[in-house]
Amino acid sequence: MKRRSWAEPYKIKMVEPIRMTSREERERAIAEAGYNTFLLRSQDVYIDLLTDSGTSAMSDRQWAGMMRGDEAYAGSRNYYSLEAAVHEHYGYKHLIPTHQGRGAEHLLSQLCINPGDSVPGNMYFTTTRHHQEAAGGSFVDVIVNEAHDPASEHPFKGNVDLDKMRSLIERVGAERIPYLSLETNVNMAGGQPCSMENIRAVCALCHEHGIPVYLDATRAVENAWFIKQREAGFADRTIKSILLEICSHTDGCTMSAKKDSLVNIGGFLAVNDDALAERARNLVVVYEGLHTYGGLAGRDMEAMAIGIAESVQEDHIRARIGQVEYLGLRLMDAGVPIVRPIGGHGIFIDAARFLPHIPRERFPAQALAAALYVDSGVRSMERGGVSAGRDPETGENIFPSLELIRLTLPRRVYTQAHMDVVAESVLDLHEHPEQVQGLEMVHEPEHLRFFQARFVPMVPASASCGGIAAQSVRP
Question: Is 90 a catalytic residue?
Fold first, then answer.
């Protein structure tokens, strides 16, 4: 049977004009931004694939819900709408709203981690690890080895390695492990999912030793889609039912609703433990706001409640993942090295293989992200040595196994034509990688440096130096 084309399951009701700048304008803009795409002005960006966090287009129902915002300081009816949506779709008993996901990470870390604790997780995420370390804990990576190999076709590279988890329990003792931080659709691995089989097994192992499991549910809906597509026994299940089962094995979650839940701001901490929930409600008042708004307006909570229901609709998630696959297949077919298999929220280009002439000390992923912007006005972001930061004991740069740039697709924002523009720009750079030079970091913030670090480009040494060394070009 001939395969038929599919289209986005929505029609466009409102548009926001965007403008393609000249190459000269882009060269000036990236230099002013210190070759850090986070420091570019949005008005200078043509297609913005920096992140899928808070960048989704809301539906007409969500905008209508915004008009029903109850901005009471305490007991807003929108809080109870959100609470009902979380109960129905995620299944947890207690809800504590926060301004975004890192607010929930902060609460959970402060409530559960003691100095000297080891906090296992299936690959680090930048803000999550920072909050764990700020509370005195040490992150321990327990993800399967395949996650560190961008060419591996393992269908569930987000899985926890049970032997690594057992080894940690034996080495430090269960009493020094406050919880397992289990991320769905692991971001730093390239948007790679966990299998239901692995979720069941690792939760059973942890609970056997009295260790809670807290889910990073930021992209759990996308993870549910991959379980439906790739794992035996789930093809006929609904996304909603798979999501509920994922959560049912865990003790709670942190959530950045700016991703799956299709809103521009918001998040929550959800737990089943009554005592922990009471402590969280008390602490959220200190850092976020009253426990029935947590730093959010009532209208934000109403939009989130509606977005949660929309996120599990089969047509929506099929189109969302389908657009990512479309871009990924275009790049793969042309031989561009990307993380495989294609993940859920973006395409991750292997910058170390894309730019083999740039050593890791010169941040090839950061350099490639800057070059892509100059070429086409497409904004992406680095996920490699800059994001990994420094070893807290030695002060040396950490160079993880993956040196990537992330092309992250906002939900319901761009068309396939925009993806074609992105692909063509990447392919042009792939044909002439020698034109991209490394970078030197000249400003390094103390925390989460990838957000605000500044760089200058390196150029090949003069012929008199034998072409071996390189020098930076400082303004």
Answer: no
